[in-house]
Amino acid sequence: MSADLTADQLTADQLKAACLALNGAEETFPFGPETSVFKVGGKVFAISALDGLPLKVSLKCDPDLAVRLRADYPGITPGWHLNKRHWNTVLLDGSVPHRLVAELIEDSYDLIVAKLPRRQQLALDWPGLHPGEATEADRA
């Protein structure tokens, strides 16, 4: 990830840069100008009120990992106004290590891209793509 996530408290600009550094990522505002929704292939992978205090981001997560993360980090809670099985909300006040935040952003992105049709994965130059393997979207 190219965005610098080393400061004690993650800033809105760092969060935005981390999300937009991923291939094909775009920032949209379907819920109004106060809520940034980051998408890839038209699908949401991160949601944040970038001017919110404290700064938080909601990220898609593997359900089993989501439960473990919530147990290990008080700054990670079930997704706010989202499917709590598949989404976590992460408090960006320094209580969750920045390297972990970066990994969770990338994991959320990867969970979305993994469900996109192969042609979209190829266009994104997604490193998780395995040659000759059909995606769930291709099989549907």
Q: Care to describe what's here?
A:
A six-stranded antiparallel sheet has the order 1-2-3-4-6-5, covered by helices on one side. β3 and β4 form a beta hairpin. It is 32% helix and 19% strand. The N and C termini lie far apart (32 Å). The protein contains five helices and six strands. The longest helix has 16 residues, at 98-113. The chain has 140 residues and is an alpha+beta fold. The protein has a single domain, classed as Alpha-Beta Complex (Aspartate Aminotransferase, domain 1), CATH 3.90.1150.30. It has helices at residues 12-20, 63-72, 98-113, 118-123, 136-139; strands spanning 26-28, 36-40, 43-48, 56-60, 76-78, 87-91.
Summarize the structure.
The chain has 140 residues and is an alpha+beta fold. Helix content is 32%, strand content 19%. Strand 1 and strand 2 (36-40) form a beta hairpin.
Indicate the topology:
Blueprint: H1 12-20, E1 26-28, E2 36-40, E3 43-48, E4 56-60, H2 63-72, E5 76-78, E6 87-91, H3 98-113, H4 118-123, H5 136-139
Antiparallel strand pairs: 1-2, 2-3, 3-4, 4-6, 5-6
GO molecular function: DNA binding
Keywords: DNA-binding
Protein name: Putative DNA-binding protein (MmcQ/YjbR family)
